[in-house]
User: What shape does this take?
Amino acid sequence: QVQLVESGGGLVQAGGSLRLSCAASGRIRSINNMAWYRQAPGKQRELVAVITSSGSTSYADSVKGRFTISRDNAKNTAYLQMNSLKPEDTAVYYCNAEILNIKLMRDNYWGQGTQVTVSS
Assistant: This one.
């Protein structure tokens, strides 16, 4: 069984920083893309950032220049460094990963979500 566990959310003042982590565990053969999504109250879930297995990244326009996605392939972990946080960044942040398990079955997995609240 494969599991994604996020950590690092919390309450921060506008202009502050947080670092989210997403650790994948279980019977993993390889991980392709890893991504962070977020969902604010009353809004649809949106893609924040993606990183490929080779380290290529892409970002939503709303977070470019403020957020940085990275990964440690040896640890099966992705990170989201969030700087210059704004109240509109307040949301539940979810980790997503495309994982090939040891039975060579590929599937898309989600973490349980971590709350990020930015006060003005």
User: Anything to note?
Assistant: The mean pLDDT is 97. The CA atoms of residues 68 and 92 lie 17 Å apart.
